[in-house]
Amino acid sequence: MLKIADVSFSYDDDKYNLVNINQNIMEGEVILLCGESGCGKTTLTRMINGLIPNFFDGTRQGNVYLNDNLVSEMPIYEISEHIGSVFQNPKTQFFNVDTTSEIVFGCENLAMSVDEIKNRLDHVVYDFKLHNLLDKNIFKLSGGEKQKIACASVSAVSPDIFVLDEPSSNLDSKSSWDLEDIIKKWKESGKTVVIAEHKLFFLSNVVDRVIFLENGQITNEWSIEEFKKINHRNYGLRQLNLENLTANHKEYYSDNSELIEFRNFNFRYGKKQALNIDGIKIPKNEIIAVIGKNGAGKSTFANCLCGLKRSCKGEVILDDVRLKRKDLLKKTYMVMQDVNHQLFTESVLDEVLLSMDEENISRAEEILTNLNLIHLKDAHPMALSGGEKQRVAIASAIASGKEILIFDEPTSGLDLKNMLKVSENLVYLQKLGITSFIITHDFELIMEACSHVLLMENGKIIDSYKQNEEKLRNFFLKH
């Protein structure tokens, strides 16, 4: 069905992102593309779905064939009938303001009948469990909810081939397991699925074949049974089986008596109560995981904690001092879920220097080295991959020297090596006396670094505890 023949590609001629790729992908196969950040996974998906050469320029050699047709010569509307794509950042593929219109947008563009469109809408709403997300403003959804809408809109078209680039990057644990069920349904109906992904835990029962890339080349290929037997960490890959994870940060747990207290901490979006924390005390100088399902209020909590929401009510008390909004702005720094909103300068080094009260180039370069970014210090931040941008924003947070750091999905789209780098830096910050709040769906990061956990549901903190493997497994693992 898909033939990739002698494909090489370079965006800027200085470096080839793909080198001599040859693959035959058969109808009904589920293929996993894996490897470290920057290995060429996303570029290969762009070759398959026609974004190269239609939207991305560069030097291209070789061809991709869809049923003997050159993908590079097919018009986009024709490609979209056969190949559907879900991008790493779902916001880049939305065309509508409300969720229902977005889900059926592709069907409308293919001139399907009203009855057919309604039928397909009903099916994807059931498959993706989207009843509570219909007719909502897309811009008011959480990152994970946007990801689910993007997946549903592509599924509604029912193409022959699905190309997914980091589809779980913003999904909560339950939604990731739901995605596993969706891929199973696609597979059972004979669809071909190509997935570029770092998080592997939800794929072990659906993938047929694994393709491993390094520096733009395919260096290993396994059947899923072979893949289950290898040591994934030897290849820089995330865990395939989360049951094997154990906490790795116990030596840094503290019995800290200093507390951050929240009283009547609440926020509304219009008439909707989005945050409602009556009263809770959280230990200071900890790495605190803030977990919960998509839409639980985690990002709203983060925005209020760092003073970004003017109408947030209530009190935050630190060191027996009630902090006003301007105090929160001074004492906190947040790495946003969509880091594109906070990259401003012309180079990575300048981005880190910007967050310092007094510029210190040697300190900035040290931080970049710790996050495996020093080789990119002169690169433009907006030219980097999603994972690299994420690390630049984390570097800026570390350089800011603030007392409380808030990270909203800091390992979204990160491979094992860079997830561990983030973990090491969080532990380093804790040793410096900094309190970190980590809003995350990443079970591996929590087990690697976090010492305390807040569980949120419907805008409330329903549980607060020191790292507890049993509680975390009950939340994250599929039962």
**Taking Cα atoms only, what radius of gyration do you get, to the nearest Å?**
23 Å
Query: Average pLDDT, to the nearest integer?
Result: 91
Please work out how many helical segments DSSP would assign: 16
The geometry reads as: globular
Report the span from N to C terminus: 36 Å
Q: Major sheet: order of its strands?
A: 6-7-8-3-9-10
Tell me about the biggest sheet?
6 strands, mixed
Give the strand tally: 20
Q: What share of residues are in beta strands?
A: 25-35%
Could you give a short description of this structure?
The protein has helices at residues 41-48, 51-54, 76-82, 99-109, 114-128, 143-157, 173-188, 224-229, 298-305, 325-331, 348-354, 361-370, 386-400, 416-431, 443-449, 469-476, and strands at 2-10, 18-25, 30-34, 59-66, 69-70, 83-86, 161-165, 192-196, 209-214, 217-223, 259-269, 272-283, 287-291, 313-318, 321-323, 332-335, 404-408, 435-439, 452-457, 460-466. The chain has 479 residues and is an alpha/beta fold.
